[in-house]
Amino acid sequence: MKLVVGLGNPGSAYAETKHNVGFWVLDAFARQHQLTFSQDKRQAQLCRGIYEAPGGDVDFLLVKPQTFMNLSGRAVAALLHDYKIPRSELILVYDDVDLAPGRLRIKKQGGAGGHRGVASVIQHLASKQFLRIKIGIGKDLRMETADYVLSHFRTEDKKKVHEALEESLKALPLLLEGKVLEAMNRFNPA
Known about the structure:
The protein has a single domain, classed as Peptidyl-tRNA hydrolase (Rossmann fold, 3-Layer(aba) Sandwich). The chain has a 7-stranded mixed β-sheet with strand order 2-3-4-1-5-7-6, with helices on both faces. It starts with a strand and ends with a helix. It is of the alpha/beta class and 190 residues long. The longest helix is centred in the C-terminal third of the chain and has 22 residues, at 155-176. It has 6 helices and 7 strands; from the N terminus they run E-H-E-E-E-H-E-E-H-E-H-H-H.
């Protein structure tokens, strides 16, 4: 089983902010596969699905932690433990200020890069060894990062981010199948 976690903040006040791109990807993937999220006791919304891959079906859980970004690792660790899913089967989807708006990058591992949600996951798992889909949201040097990620996109940037979201919906099935290098070669910028 794969655990696909989108990072974001719960509540309507944050729904359209840059920091919720991870939630956007999971919502779109769930719609694509006719899945519905429900609240879970581990402070997360989740839904379970099966991806019918040529090499065999892949069972997966889509997870949107409801603990606010900085505490996302709690829900992720609890779900990995309770479902007995190895950390190597985790795919984390989140926004990245170090990538231009709309850039997509798939990585096998790495640090938090200043992202507090990722830092929380690393802390609670005591590991950096998990897959990541990062979607660029850019940055504005005139703003504090915390204010920037909680702001709304400009129209032009939002269009680029939605294009990256569409690309992530094509990359995610490859990652579910374990075709990581193929996904990286196809979707990472040159």
